[in-house]
Amino acid sequence: MAKKKTTSKTRSKARSGGLASRRKKSPAKKAVKKTGAKGATKKKAEPDAELKRQAGKIVRGLKKTYPDVECALVHKNAFELLAATILSAQCTDERVNMVTPELFRKYPTPADLAKASQKSVEKIVQSTGFFRNKATSLRGMAAAVVEQHNGKIPTDLDTLIKLPGVGRKTANVVLGTVYGIPSGVVVDTHVKRITRLIGLTENTNPDKIEQDLMAILPEKEWINFSHRLIHHGRKICIARRPDCPECPLLKNCHRTGLDPL
């Protein structure tokens, strides 16, 4: 009986199939499955128990390591934090904190900032980068707060994100930090990088990452989870030189468990 001819295509398929069967999956990958209908796209399932357990362990580890956390942006009220958060886009908190004292000295209220000239605000915030757009957003935000909200910063997400220069991240920062309202999970560069690294999400879009985290984290932890993870990203899980041996999350970090950094 003649032997069945083995082509290079067949061998390649066999090798890839063997590799796939040996590859370890993170809980975030397990939470995604295909529908049975022909031609259907992948459909997200509810977060599985394993992923929620992992998230719970990470929350406890962060809470133990960073029990007292606060927003790194220096502010005295909701207006100052809103302005500072707008300036923090593509800029470090340290740089923002160097700029805001002069900004708030000259323009302490939304009404004052709304009357400021574009050139004056640009000069103050120039070192934060994208200063023309940021100055425009600051003045537009202040004008909208004065004209539409009697000079008071709104306390609900839908209203806040309608202000110039304010997105979900900025609104979540203000609502959570100033008002204690868990409107969502703040996803900055540290949160985006680390949650993907440890296997809590497979997404790269901040809005989708936020939805993933909201589904697996207790609502009461939404505010402090981000503050703690940001501190962790600056102190231990540093992007270019992570100190894995000192990491309190190492046992629950699926990335390091599969591919050591």
What does it look like?
This protein has 261 residues and is mainly α. Helices cover 56% and strands 2% of the residues. Helix 4 (78-87) crosses helix 5 and helix 7 packs across helix 8. It has 14 helices and 2 strands, in the order ααββαααααααααααα.
Keywords:
261 residues; mainly alpha; Endonuclease Iii, domain 2; Endonuclease III, domain 1; 2 domains
Q: Secondary-structure blueprint of this entry?
A:
Elements: H1 8-22, H2 27-30, E1 32-34, E2 42-44, H3 49-65, H4 78-87, H5 93-106, H6 110-115, H7 118-125, H8 131-149, H9 157-160, H10 168-178, H11 189-197, H12 206-216, H13 222-235, H14 254-258
Antiparallel strand pairs: 1-2
Care to give the gist of this entry?
The protein is mainly alpha-helical and 261 residues long. The chain is built from 14 helices and two strands, in the order ααββαααααααααααα. The chain has two domains: 95 residues, Orthogonal Bundle (Endonuclease Iii, domain 2); 101 residues, Endonuclease III, domain 1 (Orthogonal Bundle), CATH 1.10.340.30.
Order of strands across the biggest sheet? 1-2
pLDDT < 50 runs, ≥5 residues: 8-24, 31-42, 256-261
CATH architecture identity of the largest domain: Orthogonal Bundle
Structural class: mainly alpha
CATH fold-level name of the largest domain: Endonuclease III, domain 1
